[in-house]
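tool_call: predict_structure(chain=1)
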Amino acid sequence: MNHAPTLSRATPLLERYRSYLPITDKTPIITLHEGDTPLISAPRLAANLGVNELWLKLETMNPTGSFKDRGMVMAIAKALEAGSRAVVCASTGNTSAAAAAYAARTGLECVVVVPAGKIALGKLAQALMYGAKLLVIEGNFDQALDMVRALSESQPITLVNSVNPYRLEGQATAAYEIIDALGDAPDYLALPVGNAGNISAYWLGFQRYYAAHQCESTPQMLGFQATGSAAIVRGEPIAHPETVATAIRIGNPASWKLATAARDESGGLIDDVSDEEIIAAWRDLAAMEGIFCEPASAAGVAGIRKLMREGRGDPKGRYVAVLTGHGLKDPQLAVEQFSVPAPIPADLKAVEKALGF
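tool_result:
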């Protein structure tokens, strides 16, 4: 006897938060089952940082492994609604993977422009596998973004970087999920700042949900840039940004003004953390909580540690740190952290000796 297959009944993100999104009757509800990512308590890491309560928002669990999928599903849906046949983006990696995946899902052409030598190979492989047309330029991300913005203005192709307002609308859904999970907003939300769209999106989401659900308060937004790419902290663009955290290696954030508005309106801050601080937090996330994220994702945790060390943090507060991308996006740096053990004889006594028994 044949039985019909069991199908997933998960509600698509665009449908779940439809009333909070710019969706019309003509907007196609597309999905790769993005969103609905775990919010995990991190007691060991919280104790290590010196805070009472720490939660980790695992955006690593999105379909292409990063938070970009939330915004991209909204941007691609609106591009389809407008009759677009192609999309374009500049990327340090995660945007390209998300754009290419959702374009492939919906039959759109996708063009990705990346800076030479400044993108993790795991992310580059994703864009290529999804069928994107990849252009590598001799320049940095900011130059790539300028190029695709000009291209979208002169050609019939939709720009899907975070300067596209639908991207931020989609990314705001993560704030809705955090409030749904906790029952209220946290005291503090810590996250990496690269092109600065995500901190803006979270603040938009918290404000919107605060009004609709009568939350007790909105969180202070704590954004952290890598020191070598900390344009907002320095107050001026950086021509040649540098950091091991490739996802936030951006010297002139496109959403700069929106990010500083989120900082100021929430009573939060945007600070910088060194590569050494990022790597330490990155390794601690894996060793203490079993969570492997890409280096840039650890900037929020590194930032909380810095604030606590300097006496600027709130030990009694409820913190949520956003982990923006999966560790397998950038595995080479992880491999470089360790040396390969020397081989030992294949017998029990040698194994016991090596283990100290």
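agent: Residues 13-66+167-330 form a domain with the Rossmann fold fold (CATH 3.40.50.1100). Proceeding to next step.
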